[in-house]
Write a structure and sequence with these properties.
- 31% of the residues lie in helices and 27% in strands.
- It is α+β, with helices and mostly antiparallel strands and 321 residues long.
- Strand 8 (178-181) and strand 9 (184-196) form a beta hairpin.
- Helix 2 (18-25) crosses helix 3 (29-41).
- The mean pLDDT is 92.
- The structure holds biotin.
- Residues 90-92, 114, 117-120, 123, 125, 134-136, 178, 188-190, 207-209 line the site of biotin.
- Biotin binds at residues 90-92, 114, 117-120, 123, 125, 134-136, 178, 188-190, 207-209.
């Protein structure tokens, strides 16, 4: 964002004179006016008040690396390599690059916007500037790919715990790991495997997208929600949300690596939005009632001829029409 310094000055919502802005930015008043225009082109709503100055009308919630670090648990902060970017193709791709460059510690990338945000099943992920959280973490596991069973669901529980801890009560999970509010999808998790580095050491990129302030998204083809839209009384900070999610993911991954998926089965099921609903799976060849997950994180559908376990890699589950 080219106008970050200006927007930071205006972010208190007060009226600032052109003169005071020029002095604070070390530029001429004409340059301030040009920056105001550029900020408006970037999507900020700024009112010019004749004889008084400029007032920012849009809500701003700037990313700040120090703020995020300050919100982390000391043991998590110590082992992290955090990059906060203005713009990136995809934070998942950024973490892959950090790993290729020999990053020291757990790589984490957060961006103000993504130009090629990726969703599951090859879909694009809408990533407008300044509005949502786009966060990826590189996670290392020992014991080969088999130890990753259920990881997707573990991450969903971690994100739900983090958001609920910040006051977003009633987060739902849609198998395997979509984050839901009653209005629609609030966020998603993209888990990408990086292959085995050495024997038994596997690297996973966990990309998490949460709609925070998003007010319109014409290109999103399913019902969606945002934290600001669903809990309007609260002032949502992307820095605080990022820190809470990083803390929760690190805690959950430690527990998962030590005790496995069993610790997460009940917390996942408490938030299951498919439970008790009439579902279809495998292109409509499996029809039945949603009844939670098994000990490996597969989704269970109770059909007339018995219970069928649907695996995460299989065709998506949907509510019957
Ligand atoms: C889904 O389709 O539900 C998963 C969406 C995952 C989006 C996040 S945003 C941060 C990270 N970077 C990406 O390109 N995708 C993930």
């Amino acid at each position: 964002m080219k106008s970050k310094a200006l927007i930071t000055l205006l972010s208190d919502g007060a009226v600032h004179s052109g003169e005071s802005l020029a002095a604070a930015l070390g530029v001429s008043r004409t340059a301030v006016w040009k920056q105001i225009r550029r900020a408006m082109e970037e999507g900020f709503r700024i009112e010019t008040i004749r004889g008084r100055g400029y007032q920012l009308l849009s809500t701003v919630d700037l990313l700040d690396r120090d703020d995020i670090l300050a919100g982390l648990a000391p043991e998590t902060r110590a082992g992290l390599s955090l990059r906060v970017l203005d713009e990136v193709d995809s934070t998942n791709a950024e973490v892959v690059r950090q790993i290729a460059n020999g990053v020291d510690g757990v790589p984490v990338a957060i961006a103000d916007c993504q130009t090629a945000g990726r969703g599951r099943r090859g879909r694009a992920w809408s990533s407008p500037r300044g509005q949502n959280l786009y966060l990826s973490m590189g996670l290392t596991f020992h014991g080969g790919f088999a130890v990753l069973d259920g990881l997707s669901l573990v991450l969903g529980v971690a994100v739900a715990n983090a958001l609920e801890g910040l006051g977003a009560e009633g987060i739902g999970l849609k198998w395997p790991n979509d984050i839901f509010l009653p209005q629609g999808k609030l966020g998603g998790i993209l888990v990408e495997l990086q292959g085995e580095l050495q024997e038994g050491v596997v690297q996973v990129i966990a990309g998490i997208g949460i709609n925070v302030h998003m007010a319109d998204a014409k290109e999103v083809d399913q019902p969606w929600s945002s934290l600001g839209g669903f809990y309007p009384g609260q002032s949502w900070s992307r820095n605080r949300i990022a820190a809470a999610i990083i803390n929760a993911v690190q805690d959950s991954v430690r527990i998962f690596a030590e005790y496995g998926f069993q610790e997460f089965r009940a917390p996942w099921q408490q938030r299951d939005i498919f439970a008790g609903r009439s579902l279809q799976a495998r292109d409509g060849t499996v029809n039945g009632m949603g009844c939670g997950i098994d000990e490996g994180g597969n989704y269970l559908v109770r059909t007339e001829s018995g219970t069928v376990a649907v695996r995460a890699g299989e065709i998506s589950l949907r509510v019957s029409p």
